[in-house]
């Protein structure tokens, strides 16, 4: 059997969602590890006054592409930005671009989606379902198409506890839903959304389930495979350990923890945190396309790209490593020392939310107002609470995913491909991964310099001393009086609190 790089040799690839988190990692890895791929056509929309070509140029100038730039300085010539707004009719492609894609594309990777959990049903259907349908229609006209890879989510059927690598019946016929959305006004759609999504927590998981059905039904004549990642996190190894560039999903909460803003989360200690590194997802996707391209399986291959079944990691451990790592390598200008606690009990969580989030935020805003500054803390906390509410369902429940197809795929790889396209999560060492992840949020999301680490540590030490001082005053008014009156008492107290510092 040909190796993965050999399979991609001379191939024209179409990629949607290339400007997104997963899409850009896939683009980089494909070009770097399959250097003989002919071209990658990326569908990009105009955004914030930038043309698709400009957006592509800006994207490939980011750090993620540094390694590729070193190894293949001419790599840019292989990336062709095609203007496309996926929510428009026929993906808003020009006739010329459409003809070009129909003539030359061999492999499609469909990554684009709205991943917002609180998207309106209309918008989520438009992008996650209708655009997928439109892309399938285009794919059917492609003369040399070998594989269509659809990126779904492991939570598409989160209303089930045990999820196999099969496509389940959809919650509703997508055609009927699309037809109904045409005549309903937005108010009515929003009113019936909770009833429609039923036992799913949001429109995202609901529409991703519908998209799988659309892919299965409308792409019946195509060679299709579906990848279902769970919660995609920073990279494990490639192109750099801990690479991440956004606040989506857990990363935003990790940063809030590092800044000392996030103090309490509602989660179950023992619930599995099914994090999967982005490079694992990308390697599985590239390998799955290779497998389908070479073997042309008769049925749609579904891959549950998860970690919980083989190398489980729990939310209790996530919190432990967050506190540990952000104390060891603090973010700059943390507001408080990182110290997240976890409560599964609703009332207890509400109590700690009031005490450790809302009260300090109100006090800080009062101080800001009194000192003539603009208050912002309560606004930040409100946003944080909204984000936490959206993920609570996923931090409080656990699922079992079958991963037989993923294991089969791994066994098909040659020893060399196993190394280059590693997705064996049994080798993942969570403590090390979390250390790199926390460092990645600092380096790549917040763009903080490593040279600022000593100052950040000093700042944390100061915060800790302030807290000790505050506690001392609260606990022992006599001692506080003595410290206030006597220089010697002050020195002794300072010695006690600083000498026991920094035990990370
Ligand atoms: N991230 C996760 O934890 C996770 C977990 C499981 C599955 N997945 C799946 O993985 C895939 C990629 O997710 P991601 O995290 O990379 O998402 P992301 O960072 O939000 O990227 C979404 C991509 O879709 C593009 N897109 C959105 N609306 C578009 C439109 N109207 N026209 C053209 N392009 C549009 C975005 O382009 P712009 O830059 O123009 O906005 C962006 O490139 C999705 O299918 C998602 O369901 C993700």
Automatic annotation (TrEMBL):
- Domain Thioester reductase (TE) intervals: 15-284
Look up the coiled coil feature and give its residue ranges.
none
Q: What is its EC number?
A: 1.2.1.84
Q: What is its main location?
A: membrane
Could you state a single Gene Ontology molecular function term?
A: alcohol-forming very long-chain fatty acyl-CoA reductase activity
The topology of this chain with respect to the membrane is: Single-pass membrane protein
Q: Which reaction does it catalyse?
A: octadecanoyl-CoA + 2 NADPH + 2 H(+) = octadecan-1-ol + 2 NADP(+) + CoA; 16-methylheptadecanoyl-CoA + 2 NADPH + 2 H(+) = 16-methylheptadecan-1-ol + 2 NADP(+) + CoA; (9Z,12Z)-octadecadienoyl-CoA + 2 NADPH + 2 H(+) = (9Z,12Z)-octadecadien-1-ol + 2 NADP(+) + CoA; (9Z)-octadecenoyl-CoA + 2 NADPH + 2 H(+) = (9Z)-octadecen-1-ol + 2 NADP(+) + CoA
Q: Give the similarity note.
A: Belongs to the fatty acyl-CoA reductase family.
Q: Which PANTHER family match?
A: FATTY ACYL-COA REDUCTASE 1, MALE STERILITY PROTEIN 2-RELATED
* UniProt function note: Catalyzes the reduction of fatty acyl-CoA to fatty alcohols.
| Name this protein carries in UniProt | Fatty acyl-CoA reductase
């Amino acid at each position: 059997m040909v190796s993965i790089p050999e399979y991609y040799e001379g191939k024209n690839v179409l990629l949607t969602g290339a400007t997104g988190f997963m899409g850009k990692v896939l683009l980089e890895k494909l070009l770097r590890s399959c250097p003989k791929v002919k071209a990658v056509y990326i569908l990009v929309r105009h955004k914030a006054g930038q043309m698709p070509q400009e957006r592509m140029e800006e994207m490939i100038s980011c750090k993620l592409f540094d390694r590729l730039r070193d190894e293949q300085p001419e790599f840019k010539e292989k990336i062709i930005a095609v203007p496309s707004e996926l929510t428009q009719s026929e993906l808003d492609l020009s006739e010329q671009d459409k003809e070009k894609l129909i003539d030359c594309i061999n492999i499609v990777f469909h990554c684009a989606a709205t991943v917002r959990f609180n998207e309106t049903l209309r918008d989520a259907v438009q992008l996650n379902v209708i655009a997928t349908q439109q892309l399938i229609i285009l794919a059917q006209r492609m003369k040399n198409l070998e594989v269509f890879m659809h990126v779904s989510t492991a939570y598409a059927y989160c209303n089930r506890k045990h999820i196999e690598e099969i496509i389940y019946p959809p919650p509703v016929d997508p055609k009927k839903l699309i037809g109904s959305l045409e005549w309903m006004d937005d108010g009515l759609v929003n009113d019936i959304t909770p009833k429609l999504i039923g036992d799913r927590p949001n429109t995202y998981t609901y529409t991703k389930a519908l998209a799988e059905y659309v892919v299965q039904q409308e792409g019946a004549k195509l060679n299709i495979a579906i990848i279902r990642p769970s919660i995609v996190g920073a990279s494990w190894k490639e192109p750099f350990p801990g690479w991440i560039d956004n606040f989506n999903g857990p990363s935003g909460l990790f940063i809030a923890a590092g800044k000392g803003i996030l103090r309490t989360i509602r989660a179950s200690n023992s619930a599995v945190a099914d994090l999967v590194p982005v490079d694992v997802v990308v390697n599985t996707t590239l390998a799955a396309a290779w497998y389908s391209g070479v073997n042309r399986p008769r049925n749609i291959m579904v891959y549950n790209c998860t970690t919980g079944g083989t190398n489980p990691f729990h939310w209790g451990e996530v919190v432990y490593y967050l506190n540990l790592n952000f104390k060891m390598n603090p973010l700059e200008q943390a507001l408080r020392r990182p110290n997240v606690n976890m409560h599964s009990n609703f009332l207890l969580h509400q109590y700690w939310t009031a005490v450790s989030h809302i009260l300090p935020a109100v006090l800080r805003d009062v101080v800001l107002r009194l000192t003539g500054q603009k208050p912002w803390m309560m606004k930040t906390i409100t946003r944080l609470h909204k984000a936490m509410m959206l993920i609570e369902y996923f931090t409080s429940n656990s699922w079992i995913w079958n991963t037989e197809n993923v294991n089969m795929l791994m066994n098909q790889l040659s020893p060399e491909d196993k190394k280059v396209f590693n997705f064996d999560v049994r080798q993942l060492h969570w403590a090390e991964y979390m250390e790199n992840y926390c460092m990645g949020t600092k380096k790549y999301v917040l763009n903080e310099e490593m040279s600022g680490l000593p100052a950040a540590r000093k700042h944390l030490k100061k915060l800790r001393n302030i807290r000790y001082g505050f506690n001392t005053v609260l606990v022992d008014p006599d001692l506080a009086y003595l410290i206030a009156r006597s220089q010697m008492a002050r020195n002794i107290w300072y010695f006690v609190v600083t000498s026991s510092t920094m035990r990370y």
